[in-house]
Structures are given as C-alpha cells and as structure tokens.
Design brief:
The chain is an alpha/beta fold. Helix content is 33%, strand content 20%. It has 2 domains: 243 residues, NAD(P)-binding Rossmann-like Domain (Rossmann fold, 3-Layer(aba) Sandwich); 106 residues, Dihydrodipicolinate Reductase, domain 2, CATH 3.30.360. It is built from 11 helices and 11 strands. Helix 9 runs antiparallel to helix 10.
C-alpha cells in the first residue's frame, strides 16, 4: 500500500513517541503488538506512516534530520526505540508567533526552548513539495495564534489537519465549515491518552451515572516535568485546556455539575518527573439512602507514548477520510481520540462509531 505521508508541527516529546512507535511496530505481528487499539485500519499498519516534513523553532532541532531531532533536548520522554534510520527529512524553521511563552526563557536550556536564529519556512510550499497529506499539530498549550496560522496553511496546501492541542478548530463551526468547503478532513481537538487522566475520570464519572450514584464534587490535579507542564505554569495559556478537560468529564454526566464543584487542570511543574505525568483524582458522591462515598486515585503514566497510542489511530482514520473524499470534521475518530470533539459520546459509543467508520458503515 502507499505510505500515509504526514507533516508535524512541533518535534517534541509527543512527536518523538509517535515516530519511535512507527518504527517499533515495523517488525511486529498483530499477535505481539502490545499497546495498539487497532493493529490495522483500512489496510494500514503503523509502519505505513511516513514523516515527510516537520517544523520546529528550537535551534537544537531546526536543520537536523527528524530521526535525530526527536531525541534532542528539551525532549525527555522514554526512549523505547532508539534505532531510527535517517529519514532525509530536515526540520524546517517554524513560525513561533505565540507558541513560546515568555516565562520559558527563565529556565535552564535542558528544560526549555531555545529559539533558532533563522527565517521561518514557507509552510504551504514545504507541505506541497513534500507531498504531505496530513498535518499534525503538536504546538504548546496556549498557542492560539500559531494554531490558527497552521490550520490555514493546511487549508491553503490542501492537506488534512489533526489538531492534538486545545485550540478549538475542529469543534469550531467556522473552522469546520472551511475544511468542509475545501473537501479536506479534520480531526480534533486536544488529544486524549490511551489510559490517562481524562479517560479515567470520564470512565469513573460514567460508572457513577450508570450505577445511580450522584456525583457531588470532584477534582483532577496533574503534575509533570516536560515542557508541556513548564509551559502551563503561565495560567493565562490555560483557558482552552481547562475547558477541554472539564467538558470531557461534564459531557458524560446526566446533569452538569456546578462549576464550583468540579476542578480539572494541571497543577504544577516538577522537573525530575520528566515525561512522567501523575494524576490525583478525587470523586465524592452519594449512594443508596443518601450515604456518602468517595474515590481517591493516583495514576502514573508516561505522557507522550500515551498520546501516541491515540494519534496513530487518528492518522489512519484521517487517511480513510481522504480516500473517501470526506470534508470537515471526522466525528467518530474525533470523539474517540480527542477531549473536545465536535460531538461528545461516551467512550464505548465512540469506539463503536470508529469501528463502523473503518468498516464504511458510517460516513464520518
């Protein structure tokens, strides 16, 4: 089969995990491929994904082959596949815009971004010349202007867009209409993890609802040591992230909780945690006879491989959307892999819809 040609904005930890995964599963068979939700989608396996372009603004990555850039600082995710052959694809200088928070300059080089002294590339030209079919957005949280810039570049270049961060594009009717008019699929917004804080919180909230337990109060607090958590120390960049994570939980409840009684969001940056994310979750409710109960949970995950397990499915479903000539949001895979999709479903229902979409029984 032909390769699925992707371009990546932001060669950070998440991109590193995705690219490592493409090579990690290359020599495996379905029966020993641990960690995939779907081994094959529409005939495409992980090895059928190829990176043909990449953009970043860090001087340790710009100009380097993608195979080397994914291991450059400040990346700190686990290396589970170190044998990545040279791709021949050099990282192009991206457009920083609002992608680099001002406070990042106050931290040591190994933990933060060092902007390259180079002119930004012509993104549309690079996308067209590379043959990219799908553009993946891995910009830092709060990059509102930059995300909209790259979304427009995808439209101008005629490539599909997978928005892995919480600036609302696929779930914004105006942007969704632009992709529909161009006949280009889009998946978004804000990638979930395979087993992460949001999916766990949603599952427990749904369990409360299904078992007749009233959820009175809940919080989800997260700590981590990657650049994502360092970036999010600037609380001004968190509005859409907090909305995305909160809505993901609110959407599975039979009645929306009073905002005073639900708190979901990042809490602090702990450098030595690196790409390990720790979630502290508490849920308080009432069971039969109005008797109080509560759950406290601690979840520890490697953040970036956790997201790559969802992105690798989003890419292949997006390719099916391209092959089928679908324009606009792909509802099924967005609801399955994203925190803030255009339409929210329970995770079981979303999984069913994805399987129906893969089989061609569902249009989107």
């Amino acid at each position: 089969m032909d390769k699925i040609k992707i371009a990546i904005i932001g060669v950070g930890n998440c991109a590193s995990s995705l690219i490592q995964g493409i090579h990690y599963y290359k020599d495996k068979k379905s029966e020993d491929a641990i960690g995939l939700m779907h081994w094959e989608i529409g005939g495409y396996q992980p090895k059928d994904i190829e990176v043909v372009a990449a953009f970043d603004v860090d001087k340790r990555k710009v100009g380097e082959d993608v195979s080397k850039a994914i291991f450059a600082k400040p990346n700190c995710t686990k290396v589970f596949c170190d044998k990545i052959p040279e791709s021949g694809v050099k990282v192009s200088m991206g457009h920083a815009l609002d992608g680099v928070a001002a406070h990042m300059k106050d931290y040591e080089d190994n933990y933060t971004f060092i902007k390259a002294d180079a002119d930004p590339a012509d993104v549309v030209k690079v996308l067209k010349e590379s043959g990219a079919e799908i553009l993946l957005n891995y910009l830092p949280v709060g990059s509102e202007e930059a995300t909209k810039f790259y979304a427009q570049c995808a439209l101008d270049a005629g490539v599909a867009f997978i928005n892995n961060m919480p600036v609302f594009i696929a779930s914004n009717p105006e942007w969704a209409a632009k992709f529909e008019e161009k006949g280009i699929p889009i998946v978004g917004d804000d990638i979930k993890a395979q087993i992460g804080a949001t999916i766990t919180h949603r599952t427990l909230a749904n369990l409360f609802k299904d078992r007749g337990v009233k959820l009175d109060r809940t919080y989800q607090i997260n700590t981590g040591g990657n650049t994502d958590f360092l970036n999010m120390l600037n609380r001004d960049r968190l509005d859409s992230k907090k909305e995305s994570k909160t809505e993901a939980v609110q959407s599975v409840l039979s009645e929306r909780m009073d905002p005073h009684n639900i708190h979901i969001g990042p809490s602090d940056y702990v450098p030595w945690q690196e790409d390990n994310k720790i979630c502290f979750l508490r849920m308080e409710g009432k069971t039969f006879g109005d008797i109080p109960m509560n759950i406290e949970l601690r979840l520890s995950v490697e953040d970036s491989p956790n997201s790559a397990g969802c992105v690798i499915d989003a890419i292949r479903c997006c390719k099916l959307g391209l092959e089928r000539g679908i324009g606009g949001p792909l509802i099924s895979i967005s609801s399955y892999t994203m925190k803030h999709p255009p339409e929210q479903f329970t995770d079981d229902k979303a999984a069913e819809k994805v399987d129906e979409f893969i089989e061609g029984k569902l249009e989107r």
